[in-house]
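ok trying again, last paste got cut off:
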Amino acid sequence: MKSWWTVARITLKEGFRDKVYLSFLFFAVVLLFLSIFLGMLVVGDPAKVIADFGMAIISLFSLLMVIFVGGGSLMKEIQKKTALVVLSKPITRGEFILGKIVGIWMEAVLNVFAMSLLLFLLVASRGSIMWGIFVQAGLLSLEMGVLSSICILFYTFPTYFLSMLFTLSFYIVGHLAPTIEKASRTIETAWLRDLTRWVSYLIPNLEYFNLKNQVIYGLHVPASFYLKSFLYFFLLFFIFTSLAIFSFRKREV
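nice, full thing came through this time. structure:
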C-alpha cells in the first residue's frame, strides 16, 4: 500500500508544478470571472447563467487536466525511462499504475472543489445561494476518477495522440449514452434498433455524474440516484483500473 500511495503523492506534486496545468488553471479562472459579464448580456437570471457556464468550464478544465497533465505524466515517464527507475524499486507495475491513477484523481478533485468554491462565491455575488454546486462537484469528482483510470488505460498504449483522442472521445460518447438509447427507440428496423440499444447499454453512462440542470433549476433528486452513482463509479473505476494494470503489465517500458 505504501508504494502506490508514494507514487500518488509524487504524481500530485508534479501535476501542480506542470506549466501546462498552470496555463489551464489561469484560463479557467479567467473564464469563470468572464461568466459574470456573460450573465449581464444574456436574457434571464444572471445567477443561473453564471452557474451553467461556470460548471461547464469546471468540467472541461478538469477533463483537459486529466488528459494532458495526468496522462501526459505517464507518457513522459515512459519516454524518458524514469518509469524504469521507479519499477526497479520494490514496487509492482500494478501499484505503479494505481498510484498514477489515484494521484491524477486527487489533483482533479482538489481543482474541482477549489473552482466550485470560486463559482459558488461568484453566483452568491449575484444574490443567489446554490449549495447544489458542491453536490455537482462531488459527482464530477467521481467522474474524474473514472476518467483518470480510462486515461491511464489509453496512455499505456504506444501512441500519444491516439491515447489523447480516445480519452476525449470516451468522454463525449459517455455523455451521449442516454441520447443514443433514446434515439434507438425511433429506429424502425428491429435488429438495428436492438443493436443500437445494446450499444448504448455497453457505453459507460457518464450522465450518472451530471446534475447540472437540477442544480441550476433547484429540482429534487432522489437519494437512490446518489447511491446508483456511487455504485456505478466503483464498478467503472474497478474495471478500467484493472484493464490499465493488465495493459501496462503487457507493455515493455
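cool. The chain has ten helices and no strands. Residues 174 and 205 are 5 Å apart (CA to CA).
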